[in-house]
Specification:
The protein is α+β, with helices and mostly antiparallel strands. It has one domain (about 1-125): RutC-like (60s Ribosomal Protein L30, Chain: A), CATH 3.30.1330. It is about 25% helix and about 30% strand. It has helices at about 45-65, 85-95, and strands spanning about 1-5, 20-25, 25-30, 70-80, 100-105, 115-125. Strands 1-2-3-6-4-5 form a six-stranded mixed sheet, covered by helices on one side. Helix 2 links the parallel strand 4 and strand 5.
Length: about 120
Amino acid sequence: MKKIIFTDNAPKAIGPYSQAVEANGMLFISGQIPVNPKSGEIVEADIKIQTKQVMENIAAILNEAGYTFADVIKSTCLLSDMSNFAGMNEIYGEYYKENPPARAAFAVKTLPLNVMVEIETIAAK
């Protein structure tokens, strides 16, 4: 059985998708971009600031669904440019100090709203 997860503490979907879907003890969080959920605006064009906002958006969705970063098993990090990898990785690592999840990170041509980073997340209980 699938359950749709929604919180006002993360950005609303900008298309026909859910913030997250829970099914069979797994949580699938759609790619999060650096939109401040309170203002609806993209945060400053700095990879560290944008990554922090993305991770806070993920935290809000995890919390709404009753999960934590300790439950995350896989992340996919999309970057507008691989030169942003080190900055993204530094902030990302602050959220996974122990037993980090599996991860893929790669650059893509363009991200939604021309942001610098998008991260999708899978968690399991």
